[in-house]
Structures are given as C-alpha cells and as structure tokens.
Fold:
Amino acid sequence: MESQVKWGIGFIVIGLTLSFMAFAVFPIMIYGIPVTLVGIALILFREREKIIEEVKE
Structure:
C-alpha cells in the first residue's frame, strides 16, 4: 500500500471516531468531518503526482 492510502485510511478512521464521539460532546464533530474529508481526498488523489511527473518529462 502506498503512503497516501495508509495516511488516508488513518485520517478516515480518526475522523469517524471523532464524529461518533460527537454524540457525547458536540464540538468534537467540527473536527471529525474535515479530518475524514482529508482522508478521502488523500485516497482519491493519490495517483496525481505520478501523472504530473509523466507530463513534465
């Protein structure tokens, strides 16, 4: 697994954990949603740097 995928899965797990903890304390949900979105973005855009490097050459 590439580094972006590992970090993406980690951020998604942390974000979902924070979001589920929001049932106890509401302000934590504010942090959980962006962390989850960053994790999803890392997984979705993991191949972009390879495509950009190929175009430069």
The chain has three helices and no strands.
